[in-house]
Design goal:
The structure is a homotetramer. In chain A, helix 1 crosses helix 2 and helix 1 crosses helix 3. Chain A has a four-stranded antiparallel sheet with strand order 1-2-4-3. Chain A has eleven helices and four strands. Chain A starts with 5 loop residues before the first strand and ends in a 16-residue tail after the last helix. By secondary structure, chain A is of the alpha+beta class. The first copy, chain A, is elongated, with a radius of gyration of 22 Å. Chains A and B meet through strand 1, helix 1, helix 2, strand 2 and strand 3 of A and strand 1, helix 1, helix 2, strand 2 and strand 3 of B.
């Protein structure tokens, strides 16, 4: 069965932009954080956080974090995801969870070609049968899974603070990233934007956030067109 | 004027232990995080998180974070505090904030000796007068502050996740830590314990959490008495 | 073709224990680091670093780092490896490198059963043929690789400092870790031990380094036997 | 006695740019790291690393690290320094080291005004006398130091990898940084540039490395002049 990506925002720091504004003001004020919080109207929060972001002063946005439940992504995608080190992960283990009915991610380009899709599906079915056979032969799950494909579906709970998220969006919404993690990152951005609109207003690749592309010959050309 | 330490818990991840339990279970389950969350009664959360902690499986507790407003501590203390690198800080700046009425932290041992306290207070007053004089002479705040004492009060907003907090409590509630950061850490622990009781039940130095002391000759002797 | 694990220590901080000893002494001395270095005979380095390690004072060992070339491991293993976040990785990309002659890691338990090994090998061959077919059909490498198995061989350059390595050895040489990363970690330990013998003398799981096991019911029982 | 800043590069990863080039090539090659290393002539290393830097692909430069002995800086400066979290520090402790002959950093702007310098020096002398008096009265060093000034000299051993160093130079060589840490960062850059010339060729604030300033109203105006 093919998997479809599914992301839920489980939790986040309450009143995120208000906390960021108070933390940032504290650096330049003799007042206490609680006094600063009291004086912060929603309008002042918004204008102050927008100003922070335009200056590239990102350290105060570390105070707020976002926890996502991510499902329906491949192990190819999760291997890229966990390379982001300023984050916390809890991932479904193929050592401890039985994969006798694994789902898989079918790349859109392959889905679009009936011949390629047939090759792909046959291979998925073969992997399932071979896995089941190994389990039947008494092999351990942690070993049988060596023949499971990169396409195999996985689930994670992931937490990132807003600064790390901005970096994640910059790298992974870029056209140079692979389609699967790009789709995941885009879903995540849609979830956080309503909650911290001033922080994530210009989130995305550097062509969006700064009007710059550093990809050289490998650029998608979006900026020059 | 002497400063007194004051810590407020500004925000934290909502329902922290429930999130931790769901994240931890996900690793060993074929269910989705949302299904796991639904099935988690408060009792199961508590027993599951307590079990996690007894096994030393700390990675799931990274998903929850705590943001504190800290005031009334010295720059001596904040210099120790910011050495904890898995954390986020926004600190009142002596470059940008005028220190013409600075408060200071008076060490209890000094307060207890009238002669020492007199020497200390005179030095604080001298520092204030010299600072004011330098400002009057047109020196910049960022330079005038070079004569301000370590005792000078500072304010911070700090965020740590629960795993980093446990490490902070282990090192800084230990009798080998200095009295000021020990008091700060103890106040912080009192604030987080009611919110995540199973996670912080045995928080503190290794003599409390594990019944072990690694301080050798420098041990306070608590365990051997 | 089956892959065999191969690890080389490419580079490391020169004179690692001497640097650690000087850094650690600096904290408690009025001398300069260069004066401290001059006075450090090999004997004093060894006794001082051994003392540090017995006290669990690990921060000075962060100053030294080790860079490894790792080959012949599976993507299952590398997915576990990159979860160690205090480290730096450069990994061979399945997006950019053609996998038309991929090697694979054969789990020993499977190799030991002729029937299981036959199922496994057939599946590896099927994956290779299906991959080649998708490439022939014009699919992109980054998509065709979705059907490649976890067993697929990968290569990395990895750098860790000594403190992060100790944590890595503690978790991954433990009998609870999977055989492949356990073998990798053991090879790495053999490479660094001659270079920093006092630091890595007791490296390994907590049963070795501290005489404690926290795995509860899941313990291998080594300590209690 | 006034302190003067003094930085020594104690150690660094040997052949740093060669390691970076091999690590970076590994990502896009089917060859082993050792084969790649063999084929890397100095010319190819230089052109490849320069290309990497122009693309902003910084992850491979994490593999190399630099360890500095830093002396003659103030505690004001070290408090800023240790805010850089992707780094390792061993700092002389005012709890354990006697400060009865402390040196201090005299800000140049204050040195340039005889009246200000007199106020400053008197305050330093007063701090020394008060500190000595507290010690004489039996106060502990860790408490007596509360009256020591921010100007008080400190020593550190610090290790950063090249990626973290680039970020450090970007923030701290900027005209918006304070003069003392700016001087320190500039000295460090001079020490590493000959060792990894292609990596640090354009190191510095974003006006130097990218021709951009994000400081808005607070900009030094260097770019617009």
């Amino acid at each position: 069965m093919t998997a479809t990506p599914h992301v839920i925002l489980l939790e986040h720091t309450p009143e995120p932009e208000r906390i960021v504004a108070a933390a940032a003001r504290l650096c330049y004020s003799s007042s206490s954080a609680t006094d600063l919080l009291e004086r912060l109207t929603p309008e002042r929060v918004q204008s102050f956080v927008s100003h922070l972001m335009s200056m590239g002063h990102e350290s105060p946005i570390e105070h707020i974090s976002f926890t996502f439940a991510i499902e329906g992504i491949s192990r190819a995608c999760s291997h890229q995801l966990v390379r982001h080190r300023i984050a916390s992960y809890s991932q479904q283990s193929q050592r401890y969870v039985n994969m006798q009915q694994f789902e898989f991610v079918l790349p859109p380009q392959i889905a679009a070609s009936s011949e390629a899709a047939a090759v792909f599906s046959a291979q998925m079915q073969g992997a399932q049968e071979a896995y089941d056979k190994l389990i039947e032969l008494g092999m351990q799950q942690e070993d049988a899974r060596y023949l499971l494909p990169n396409a195999c579906e996985t689930k994670l709970v992931m937490t990132m603070n807003a600064r790390s998220l901005l970096n994640f969006f910059a790298l992974r919404i870029c056209m140079r990233a692979q389609w699967e993690i790009r789709a995941l990152a885009s879903q995540m951005l849609e979830l956080v934007q309503p909650i911290a609109p001033s922080i994530f207003a210009k989130a995305g690749p550097s062509c969006v956030s700064e009007g710059i592309c550093r990809e050289g010959d490998l650029s998608c050309g979006r900026l020059s067109s």
